[in-house]
Amino acid sequence: MEELFRVGVISNTHGIRGEVKVYPTTDNVRRFDDLKEVILDTGKEQLNLHVTSVKYFKNMVILKFKEFDNINDIIPYKGMDLLVTRENAIPLEDGEYYIADIIGSKVITDEDKILGTLTDVLQTGANDVYVVKTKDGKEVLLPSIEECILDRDIENKIVKVHIMKGLLD
After folding, report:
1. DSSP code string of 57-80
2. Boundaries of each Ribosome maturation factor RimM PRC barrel domain copy (predicted)?
3. In CATH, which superfamily holds the domain spanning 4-87?
4. What is the CA angle 12-4-28, rounded to 5?
5. Is 53 exposed, middle or buried (0-12, 13-18, 19+ CB in 10 A)?
6. What digits encode the pLDDT tens for the residues 71-88?
């Protein structure tokens, strides 16, 4: 299971005192209100940062970190991911799961045939769409609705599906 979850991407600096504009990649943008620590993934290393202030502007979150007090210190981190540990992630309700935990799941049909591997989840306005890569390299898009997604076994990484008429055409 994934131990780190991306909550945002540093899009730009904000002011001269080391604040950053963050594009949130979480379902609940207000989750930043209670966020005390994040991990900055530089691609080469992961830096633990402490959040000292949170503001909201349009569709962005403006964060200030204890570790940075100057615009020049934060500029090199534009475009980099901000992560949280599983323990700092938003708690799940019964029946909920983290998308990261089902990525890589084996997808089988209700006829016990292997369809492929779940490689991505697209979040649309109406419902999520599971992207399944078949063994011959094709992509199949399955709507995450009760008629199509029958069961999600998160621990064993198996998703059982019903192929509705027309989905494989």
Report:
1. ETTEEEEEETT--SHHHHGGGTT-
2. 101-166
3. RimM (2.40.30.60)
4. 60
5. exposed
6. 999 999 999 999 999 888
